[in-house]
Amino acid sequence: MNQPEISAINRRNFIKTTSTIAAGLTLAPGVFAQHDDTLKIALIGCGGRGSGAADQALSTKGPVKLVAMADVFKDRLNSSYDMLKGKHADRVDVPEGNKFIGFDAYKHAIELADVVILATPPGFRPMTFEEAVRQGKHIFTEKPVATDAPGVRRFLAAAAESKKKNLKVGVGLQRHHQIGYIDTIKRLHDGAIGDIVSMRAYWDGNTPWVHPRETLEAQAGRKLTEMEYQMRNWYYFQWICGDHIVEQHIHNLDVINWVKGAHPVRAQGMGGCEVRKGKDYGEIFDHHFVEFQYPDGTYLSSQCRHILGCYDSVSEHVVGTKGRCDINDYAIRDKHNKVGWKFKMEHQPNPYQQEHDDLFAAIRADKPYNEAEYGANSTMTAILGRMATYSGKMIDWDDAINSKISLFPKELSWDADMPVKPGPDGMYKLPVPGKTVVV
Ligand SMILES: NC(=O)c1ccc[n+]([C@@H]2O[C@H](COP(=O)([O-])OP(=O)(O)OC[C@H]3O[C@@H](n4cnc5c(N)ncnc54)[C@H](O)[C@@H]3O)[C@@H](O)[C@H]2O)c1
Fold first, then answer.
1. CA dihedral sign of residues 215, 422, 122, 178
2. Does the Cβ of 71 fall within 6 Å of ligand 1?
3. How many domains is the chain partitioned into structurally?
4. Spatial distance between the Cα atoms of 229 and 316, rounded to a whole number of angstroms
5. Chain segment 191-239, per-residue pLDDT in tens
6. Residue at 168 is within a domain
7. pLDDT tens per residue across span 90-132
8. Residue 93's domain is classified under what CATH number?
9. In terms of residue numbers, what domain contains 156?
10. 282 within domain boundaries
11. Which residue owns the Cα nearest ligand 1 atom 19?
12. Is the residue at 336 inside a domain?
């Protein structure tokens, strides 16, 4: 495919954003003449999604180059590099010296780029996002953007800074770039089903991957430290994953927030760990059911479950005064449940590609583009839901977002004293509704 050249003016605009503001300097005209139009990318967190996001960033229009990579594990970085180099030989230029390993790796990789992809597990998002903003870089960050309230506040403070610096920020809630969703939700906003009075959202499905300690230790040929184990098996630890209500169900909660143009004001719910029990399943629940209340008094019933052999659904549905809509099915029905409109498109563009196309186009054209705030609100919505199920109490948004309870370890090192450890039987403690304190 031909890669259109971008104009000198556009180049000036986006480089000005990344360099001038970061340095707090006013650069003389002509300073940019020495640069070409290539957008340099750094990948932070070289796992499945990070590698996918880098592939998509490297498939956008205009000259782009992956110049730096960072991960805490060398094996993860190397396999990501091999995949990306195999697919984009001429667009991957990451010499050994630009492959950074360790807890501080992100800082060095960010330095070398115009655009950074943040795709670590979500516990590290506030820290890496803040640093990317501090260094004045454009950002694609995966969702969720935090795992606890202090993390959301830290992310929001950096988001405000990113706006001041005119940085472009994309958040990996890709339904916002999926034409079927965009078209359907626009119709809802235009009143296709009247006032929306009731909502439902689901992420009911299977358990994702698990990395048992025994297998990891057999592969390593030694015992793992607790930090190493939790980092490898991160899905099952609150501080780094947030629980699956935050890590996955955020997508469906985000769609309802988008439809309502608001986030919930309070929530109560129930949940537990009924089936997915065992030493390697950490400290998260396998099901959550939450009633979220929105500012207009309407309710969202939300459920997410990781139990095999049960009802499966990843979907969002709303009922209005004049009809109903199965949002993920792009279908609007009348009061008699008859489909009146359905979005049809033979080849809908891949939303994962589209979100990168949109971000990179905005960077090149210096158009306003910042998804950080709704990304943070949707993350906080999911955290509020988790607080409701863990505590078993009615939790107000304001109390939730102001919670001082931080899940993050005090120290980031491989032999850190982890706040969460297994008991003598190898099992981790689960939250206990009615007893667990969340705010
Ligand atoms: N938008 C979507 O549909 C979608 C889909 C999948 C994953 N995700 C999100 O992407 C993120 C990553 O998920 P994944 O499936 O790629 O996980 P993964 O385990 O495959 O990759 C995470 C990578 O980050 C590395 N890492 C961990 N801590 C780090 C740190 N402090 N600094 C640098 N690297 C670090 C890990 O070693 C690993 O290579 C998660 O937030 C997840 O929710 C989004």
1. positive
2. yes
3. 1
4. 35
5. 999 999 999 999 999 989 999 999 999 999 999 999 999 999 999 999 9
6. yes
7. 999 999 999 999 999 999 999 999 999 999 999 999 999 999 9
8. 3.40.50.720
9. 8-175+353-370
10. no
11. 47
12. no
Measured in Å, residue 316 CA sits from the centre of ligand 1 at 25
The token duo for 279 is 């030493």
Nearest to 287 by CA among 204, 407, 385: 204
Domain contains 106: yes
Q: Is the model's pTM score more than 0.85?
A: yes
Residue whose pair of structure tokens reads 């705030």 in the numeric block: 373
Atom of ligand 1 nearest to the CA of 76: 39
Residue nearest to atom 21 of ligand 1 (CA): 47
By DSSP bridging, strand 64-71 and strand 99-101 are parallel
Q: Is the CB of 58 under 6 A from ligand 1?
A: no
Question: pLDDT tens, 39-72?
Answer: 999 999 999 999 999 999 999 999 999 999 999 9
**Cβ–ligand 1 contact at 80 (below 6 Å):** no
User: Using an 8 Å Cβ cutoff, are 184 and 389 in contact?
Assistant: no
In sequence order, the 6+-apart residues with CB closer than 8 A to the CB of 274 are 286, 287, 307
Q: Closest ligand 1 atom, CA of 49?
A: 16
